[in-house]
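Hi F.,

I've been meaning to write this up properly since the lab meeting, where we talked about keeping a consistent format for the predictions we share between groups. The idea is simple: the sequence comes first, exactly as it goes in, then the structure tokens exactly as they come out, then a line or two of notes. No screenshots and no reformatting. I'm using this chain as the first example so we have something concrete to point to.
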Amino acid sequence: MIDFLTYWDTQLFIFFNGIHSPFWDNVMWWISGSKSWIPFYLIIIAVIIYQKRKGAILVLLFIALLVFLTDQSSVHLFKNVFQRLRPCHTPELQDIIHLVKNKCGGQFGFVSSHASNTFGIAAFLAFLFKNKAFGVFIFFWALIVSYSRIYLGVHFPLDVFCGGLLGLIIGFAVYKAYYLTEKKVFKQS
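Output, unedited:
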């Protein structure tokens, strides 16, 4: 079963990574960069402050906890345990891979921290704002950031899928913890 999954994961990677152009190389590089999204994060923070007012600090603390959990669990519970090579470090793929700007990242790729972080944030914010249009937008953002990792040649599709799933689970759990905490904190004040 593992061989079957690995085979199809590799074939999907080759297909998706093979669709490239100089224009999309630059776009996907920008999308994948964490600093590219600073204005977006500042807007989200501003909306949280505006909507939650005195409760904004609590929301931001839980988002910080969420990012810590998704990032650290993707590395310490998955990458360091499974030690699956990134596509760009896989010897059989090195002659056919499209690697943008010769940047590969660390040795291991299962699961994608980008996918875990973005899907965790998307889940938390979708539950927090309870707005369908925003929910569609934020999950599309998580999906495109995650896809950029395959495009750039640094993750297999299964790395991204499992990272996204991990992020969704943690995002939901952290939101539930936030919700229960918020009820207790603001009920007593």
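Notes:
The mean pLDDT is 93.
Residues 2-188 form a domain with the Vanadium-containing Chloroperoxidase; domain 1 fold (CATH 1.20.144).

If this format works for you, I'll send the rest the same way.

G.
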